[in-house]
Structure of Lactoylglutathione lyase / glyoxalase I family protein:
Amino acid sequence: MPQTVTLNHISRESSDVRRLADFYQEIFGFEEKEAPNFGEFKVIWLNLPGAFALHLIERSPITKLPEGPYSATSPVADPSHLPRGHHICFSVSDFDSFLQTLKEKGIQTFQKSLPDGKVKQVFFFDPDGNGLEVASGISE
């Protein structure tokens, strides 16, 4: 019998997990849930009801993992590069209203549509430079 696989969570590291948590709560409606106390570093667990969890983990100053486009040797802060780059995609029921929210918050975006024109897309970065896409419908 085949194994059932589902998405459990996505993790993002950050030097300011509170700032990043506030962004995802404000922009997407994530809800903060109880997280274990890991002692030496901070974590915030967020849940998007009916979808998946997002685990925000305080960046380790020792490992020196790349932080993302904002800290690259040549910063790539232009969201027009995201359609071919790493990003997480969310779908929303009211694309135009969501787009208006981003504009009101002064978030720089790049918009396009799938080749058939049926799905509108907007690309942007979170405060740590992680790529995000929001689509007007389900795109597989």
Summary: Residues 13 and 57 are 5 Å apart (CA to CA).
